[in-house]
């Protein structure tokens, strides 16, 4: 039997206390010296800076194993900008099914229903900790989903539910999945992510990947609404090919570009996608081994096969916590996160504001498993420390 006596204050501390789910921890060994080659003070349209932008694209495609006939571009406004660009540019030709199981996928549902006002849209919902019912999806419709729920810690374990002969497009927000999970490219049509997640890059820049089917839609479908310049992927009825070779729509930060290249080179040095996945899965395993038999915590994700290896969401399971009302639980969970931050062992590790109260520990590839292992006894200690004291 596990020993559930009060946890003592640990002596060891994580060497890096950055467990934020975005922006995420920099890669191990990072220093500002890695950015010394940045093309600062240069036009992003000049030959050298443009080559760096193109290098981000080619290295990303190679590491991810993206099919050769897909196009990949750097777009404004992080993953949010990439998703919005896809929604506003591609939807309207078919009915739409939006899968909503956490805050960001719920935001995409709001865009589709209330902003684009698509009358033939359906929202297939699930509570935090669960995936939507994939049997309810009509794949003659376009489908919008979040491959990994950044605020719920729930991921799709595979793409088996998506038919190869689907009629509609599948648009997958993959910001906390890319570089940490094997994406089924043959089952997807649009994949988006941002630099500040698994590779620990800086914010503000998104990546938009389009399958040949998505490109065909762009060329054959004209949205019924006006598109601002920042969303336009076509010009004169033709694809704006420059976007996919480093000619960005707006001005990127060349400092962030250099940082992205540093992250990609590091990814190659640890074994590419296979190595990145192994690092993230090791972090999940360390937490799963700790959760097993621990009455203080449990995963928010109900099924083991759907647990994220990046945004690892936990809820407090201690009996005293369960006895609190909703307001008391929210306060107690914040107190746990605050204590971890005060002790400088886990920064920004509280659950997302719309999620059930608890903790969210980033387990992406830039996080060392040794730091996860050093943190976990502190979580035990913090939960016990904030428990209401008996009178």
Provide the spatial order of strands within the biggest beta sheet: 1-9-8-7-4-2-3
Q: Tell me the overall shape.
A: globular
What's the main sheet like? 7 strands, mixed
Integer tally of domains:
2
Q: According to CATH, what is the class of the largest domain?
A: Alpha Beta
Structure description:
With 391 residues, this protein is of the alpha/beta class. It folds into two domains: 32-267, Aspartate Aminotransferase, domain 2 (3-Layer(aba) Sandwich), CATH 3.40.640; 272-386, Alpha-Beta Complex (Aspartate Aminotransferase, domain 1). 33% of the residues lie in helices and 15% in strands. It has nine helices and 14 strands. The strands form four sheets. It has a seven-stranded mixed beta sheet with strand order 1-9-8-7-4-2-3, with helices on both faces. Strands 12-13-14 form a three-stranded antiparallel beta sheet. Strands 5-6 form a two-stranded antiparallel sheet. Helix 1 (47-64) runs parallel beside helix 5, helix 6 runs parallel beside helix 9 and helix 8 (326-342) crosses helix 9. The two termini are 28 Å apart. The model has no long low-confidence stretch (mean pLDDT 97).
């Amino acid at each position: 039997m596990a020993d559930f006596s009060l946890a003592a204050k640990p002596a060891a501390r994580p060497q890096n206390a950055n467990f934020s789910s975005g922006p995420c921890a920099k890669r191990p060994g990072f220093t500002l010296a890695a950015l010394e080659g940045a093309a600062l003070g240069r036009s992003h349209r000049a030959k050298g800076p443009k080559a760096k932008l193109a290098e981000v694209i080619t290295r990303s495609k190679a590491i991810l194993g993206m099919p050769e006939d897909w196009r990949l571009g750097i777009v404004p406004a992080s993953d949010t900008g990439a998703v919005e660009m896809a929604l506003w540019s591609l939807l309207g030709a078919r009915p739409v099914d939006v899968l909503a199981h956490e805050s960001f996928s719920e935001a995409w549902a709001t865009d589709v229903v209330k902003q684009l006002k698509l009358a033939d849209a359906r929202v297939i919902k699930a509570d935090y900790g669960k995936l939507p019912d994939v049997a309810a999806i009509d794949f003659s419709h376009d489908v919008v989903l979040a491959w990994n729920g950044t605020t719920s810690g729930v991921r799709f374990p595979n793409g088996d539910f998506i038919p190869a002969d689907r009629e509609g497009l599948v648009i997958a927000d993959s910001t906390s999945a890319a570089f940490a999970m094997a994406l089924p490219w043959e089952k997807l049509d649009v994949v988006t992510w941002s630099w500040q997640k698994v590779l620990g890059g800086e914010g503000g820049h998104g990546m938009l990947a389009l399958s040949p089917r998505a490109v065909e839609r762009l060329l054959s479908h004209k949205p019924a609404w006006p598109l601002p310049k920042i969303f336009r992927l076509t010009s004169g009825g033709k694809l704006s090919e420059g976007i996919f070779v480093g000619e960005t729509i707006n001005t990127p930060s060349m400092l962030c570009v250099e940082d992205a290249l540093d992250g990609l080179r590091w990814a190659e040095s640890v074994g590419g996608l296979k190595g990145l996945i192994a690092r993230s899965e090791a972090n999940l395993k360390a937490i799963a081994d700790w959760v097993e038999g621990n009455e203080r915590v449990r995963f928010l994700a109900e099924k083991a096969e759907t647990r994220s290896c990046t945004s690892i969401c936990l809820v407090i399971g201690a009996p005293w916590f369960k006895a609190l009302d909703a307001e008391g639980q929210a306060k107690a969970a914040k107190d746990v996160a605050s204590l971890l931050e005060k002790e400088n062992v886990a920064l920004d590790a509280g659950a997302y504001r719309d999620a059930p109260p608890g903790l969210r520990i980033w387990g992406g590839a830039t996080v060392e498993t040794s730091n996860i292992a050093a943190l976990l006894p502190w979580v035990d200690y913090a939960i016990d420390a904030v428990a209401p004291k008996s009178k």
